[in-house]
Amino acid sequence: MALTVPGQLNTEVIPSWGSRSVDCFEKLEQIGEGTYGQVFMARETKSGEIVALKKIRMDNEKEGFPITAIREIKILKKLEHENIIKLKEIVTCTGDAKDEQRNQDGNKFMGGVYMVFEYMDHDLTGLADRPGLRFTVPQIKCYMKQLLTGLHYCHVNQVLHRDIKGSNLLIDNEGQLKLADFGLARSFSNDHGGNLTNRVITLWYRPPELLLGATRYGPAVDMWSVGCIFGELLYGKPILPGKNEPEQLNKIFELCGSPDENNWPDVSKTPWYNNFKPTRPMKRRIREMFRNFDRHALDLLDHLLTLDPNQRWTAKQALDADYFWNDPLPCDPKSLPKYESSHEFQTKKKRQQQRQNEELVKRQKLQHLQQHTRLPPIQHTGQAPSQWQGPNHPLNNAQPPVSAGPSHHHYGKPRGPPVVPNRYPPSGNQSGGYNTNRGAQAGGYSGSQYPAQGRGPPYGGSGMPVPGPRGAPTGYGVGPPNYSQSNQYGGSVGGRGPNPLGGNRNQQYGWQQ
Ligand SMILES: Nc1ncnc2c1ncn2[C@@H]1O[C@H](COP(=O)(O)OP(=O)(O)OP(=O)(O)O)[C@@H](O)[C@H]1O
């Protein structure tokens, strides 16, 4: 692969791409399963290097190679930055149907096209789901800073990610965080019509302008998602877990206040405003809900979760926030503890296994009860614990079955139920007063307000998932975003003067030593 200086665009074409076979790799285990295809951990046979292979799903493609994959490859080829996942090469496999059958569970790959990525030990959702794991404040600052630095680089280079969420933030055991899954990303440099799809970004992380039907938008959409991730890291669980689009908007308005011409000039011009405007004014409650957060954290959160996309902080503004320049400073990524690998796919699988075990134990107990109810009680003394009652038994570990949060794709249907038990340890305000149990109707919408499914513009009131661009590429329009491209994203990440605590904001956001 041609080398470029990190932080610069890679404009060279790599001629060898696609010329190698996937047979150069040995499949180790599956680490991801997405809308897009499966992801495997694999070893390159010759060098022994561990990589991640993402199989490009072709089964639904009548029209050849999927446009989303072409976009992802094109965008990733041009981005070169330490906080963006590195696409190393593309490999192919021409296995026939018989081979595919035979290799289904073996260590060979089936036919198709694979993207070869550098391997990352965790994704943020998988890592945060580890029982007993507690992120420290310097650690949260460290991850947030890397997320913002990577995103700033994307935006400077006129790329919108459009699917920022925990499972797309990969972390290695050196503490490096990298943005991944550019399947919904798009370059907005040569578009001049502003007709982009609004059916992007996983529901819980989707900004109000998209939910209100905007098709002219810019980097601010990613910044809303960053706000949701930040809130989640501090609060310990997703802060806006809507079940469907109307409920999502309602949750946003309950937390951020209802939009009006004062706090969001021109909101009434968004395509679906009249369908979804709240029936009563609602107060902005971020500072009240999260009142126990550190004031700098609260200030950053407040600026990220700003309703008006034009007033929402950019990645550069966020990197300049006092939060990152006051004690405790972000830690050096290398100083972070090393954890056993954890990907959302695996933690979910483990949980599923645990739930199955619990079910089995329940059924066995019930059977046992049924068998013995008519017998005199027996005293069990000195008996070894059964395989279901040992110290590692799930019942003894008392872990509630948890939903992994929304990581299913984009089109309005988050993975997992809406009420998600706390998956983070307390690191901010645990008694912050944010009531996730408030129902969709609590916020002033009348249920009848939504057009019936299939009628009218936006969403059916039923909360049914809406087909999205991966399934229907027609959703992608061409045209520029309507946000101003003036200097905001024009330069390198500069700071705003010396860090009072010794760091220098002009030094590319260097780490605390
Ligand atoms: N380079 C990598 N190293 C390690 N794990 C990875 C890598 N790339 C992806 N994964 C794992 O695979 C999962 C799915 O990958 P990715 O998001 O790229 O696929 P997708 O099909 O677009 O999934 P989704 O539909 O959830 O967005 C990630 O959440 C992550 O856990």
Automatic annotation (TrEMBL):
Top-level lineage group: Eukaryota
Region (Disordered): 335-513
Bias-annotated ranges (Polar residues): 380-400, 427-439
Residue ranges constituting the Protein kinase domain according to the UniProt record: 25-324
Compositionally biased region (Basic and acidic residues): 335-347
GO BP annotations listed: positive regulation of transcription elongation by RNA polymerase II; response to virus
One term of GO molecular function: ATP binding
Biased composition, class Pro residues, residue ranges: 415-424
Gene3D superfamilies: Phosphorylase Kinase, domain 1, Transferase(Phosphotransferase) domain 1
InterPro entries in alphabetical order: CDK, Kinase-like_dom_sf, Prot_kinase_dom, Protein_kinase_ATP_BS, Ser/Thr_kinase_AS
Binding positions (ATP): 54
Keywords: ATP-binding, Kinase, Nucleotide-binding, Transferase
Cellular component annotations (GO), alphabetically ordered: cyclin-dependent protein kinase holoenzyme complex; nucleus
UniProt entry tagged with the keyword Kinase: yes
Family: Belongs to the protein kinase superfamily. CMGC Ser/Thr protein kinase family. CDC2/CDKX subfamily.
Protein name as annotated: Cyclin-dependent kinase C-1 isoform X2
Species the sequence originates in: Ziziphus jujuba
